[in-house]
Amino acid sequence: MKVIKLDAIDSTNDFLKGLSQTQNVENFTAVTAKTQTKGKGQMGSKWLSESNKNLITSILIRDTLTSIEDIFILNMTVALAIVEALKKYKIPAVSIKWPNDIMAENKKIAGILIENSIKENGKIDSIVGIGLNVNQTDFENLPKASSLKIYMGLDFDTENLLESIVDEMQTYTTKIKNGETDSLWQEYTQNLFRKDIPTVFEDNKGLKFMGLIQGINPNGKLEVLLEDDSVKQFGIKEITMVY
Ligand code: BTN
């Protein structure tokens, strides 16, 4: 595995994107940084991470997806790869909060931001950005966040964690290439945060309702069993989980 280690950068995702467009960067090359000045989160948010405490990385995945419809499958495999890597470190109660936050019990410990670009030959390059809270213990302004250290009471080596995650990503992306999407779906569903547990959701009009997460549909929408016994599917921008 090739790792490009940086001290400070605006965003490892942007850096790797630029590099992969101008140079011949090997598949699964990872860029890490001790700190980011413009760390990017999901839906235009910022990703904040204390300097030199956590895993801040972007990994290039070349030519694995063949259509833009497969994007959610890559999201699933990256989330699963992180969960599997963490299970190997004996971290219990790790789950995936749909669509792709990684949780330890009911706190978020990692986020994923994947940026895809279709090349002239029709193939897709994906920059998989991962922020994993490892040894940071102060989350005063982020009450829903936690870290491996808070959870396990000990320090972890971020480089070893990266290696384990990339190993798992290689295994899982082979499954995509082999068309084993059904088993990926099953595994993802089994690891869903609050699956089959009564959960409060809020829709984009501010209305709260109760439901049971059943799984996800082929488009990556969340399937929720509502109190009137109907099953409804929600897109990423349609609901948030209040728990
Ligand atoms: C989220 O909002 O949950 C996604 C967070 C993704 C953060 C990572 S840190 C490394 C990479 N570079 C970025 O600018 N963002 C991702």
UniProtKB/TrEMBL annotation:
Alphabetized UniProt keyword annotations: Ligase
SUPFAM superfamilies: Class II aaRS and biotin synthetases
Claim: Isomerase is one of the keywords in the record: no
Keyword Transcription regulation: no
Domain of life: Bacteria
InterPro entries, per the entry: aa-tRNA-synth_II/BPL/LPL, Biotin_CoA_COase_ligase, BPL_LPL_catalytic
EC numbers on record: 6.3.4.15
Domain BPL/LPL catalytic: 1-177
Gene3D superfamilies: Bira Bifunctional Protein, Domain 2
NCBIfam families: birA_ligase
Descriptive protein name: Biotin--[acetyl-CoA-carboxylase] ligase
Organism: Flavobacterium humi
Origin organism lineage: Bacteria, Pseudomonadati, Bacteroidota, Flavobacteriia, Flavobacteriales
